[in-house]
Amino acid sequence: LSSSGSGMLHSTQLLEDASTAVQTFLLPAGYPNSVTPDYLPFMMWTFPTHVTGWLYSSLTTASLLEGVGVNTSGKATGVVAATAAIKWLTKDGLGSLGRLIVGGRFSDLVDTDPKRWRLVAEAFAVTGSLFELSTILMPSQFLALASAGTLTKAVGKGFAKPSFRVIQNHFAISNNIGSVAAKEEVWEVFAQLLGLGLSVLLLKRTGVTSSYTSLFGSWLAMVIAHVVFRYISLSKVIFKELNLKRAKVLMTKHVFGEGIWAVSDVNSVEQIAVSGNELQPRMSTGCTLEEVIVGNLKGKAPVSEVTGGNGVMEMLAMYTDEHYLLGWCEPERRAYVALKEGADSETVLRAMWQAAWLDRYHTSPPNVSTSGVGLLRESYAALCTEWGAVGFHRMKWAVESEGWDVSGSYLVPPGISRVASTIVS
């Protein structure tokens, strides 16, 4: 019994040592306390994403080689090796423009919605891969198709890298971004080796390149699996910072009497592939004072009511203590919001709650007059009744009590237009 017990203890110790070794090799130092709880689920789903990515990339590479004039035996057919090399280098050079375009023009987009832009990057990558896959059908158009494919994939990479960097920063709660990035490389290399190994088996043993139909079918199957895995992995990321989409869900649910939702609940219903601008309530933030007034003119209020008499003054006076102005266009069901100097994320949340109230009650508001100014008055009264005056910060406290980081949220993009407080006071 003593010998048996000693053997079991030895086996248990070996398992524990092996588990520790694997954890040390794959996970950041100090795991699980050094990263957010959503780190491991994300990585577990990212692994098959990488594997399928290498699989479908290998199929497009086979197609490119055939299209440029190199057959499966590695011999040049139809073009000399030098010409093939020139074509290959040219398409790579043209493709580099993609990253230049994204970095120079769209660099500020990924911070607010990295999950969506990572998915957008995947769409570009798949489209580029499809261009490359087409070269085998039209080898005479190799340069055009391959360049289009490389350019499109480069645009995708331009979105993918910064998006993933934001996600890595989210995981690194112990200022250990280097460790998190290094371990991601380990996971990716493992996936790459597995993906390349499976690709060799697929290309050598199955005869998948014997016809374009079988090649395209295999590619499509890998792409579908890859995109599904990518979507699932992104859905595992739980941000506590509010962006436009999460804030709209939060405020709308509250207006409908469902209270303030917790961080995990909002993230679980977040529509990753959809732009926040497409969700209700619709808001145009960063408007000029003129746009706010004109937006309200498009609603039920007669022109004379808003522009004449005390219409404009009443609307401006309503927001004297706020750091925003809001006009409501009922036909468009859209709020036009001007931010004053000093506006922050809490300001946008208050405006969004008012917009959500207007969106819910704009057709049959309780005890509301039919005029645009009257509707605004009722909505602002509802805001103050629910959350108090702006200086009490009741909304911020309520939201933060559910785990949200209001101060670190992305609701006021850098460079957004603001209205001078002296103009509207």
From TrEMBL:
Signal peptide: none annotated. Residues 17-254 form the Protein root UVB sensitive/RUS domain. InterPro entries: RUS_fam, UVB_sens_C, UVB_sens_RUS_dom. Residues 310-367 form the Root UVB sensitive protein C-terminal domain. Belongs to the RUS1 family. This is DUF647 domain-containing protein. It comes from Pyramimonas obovata.
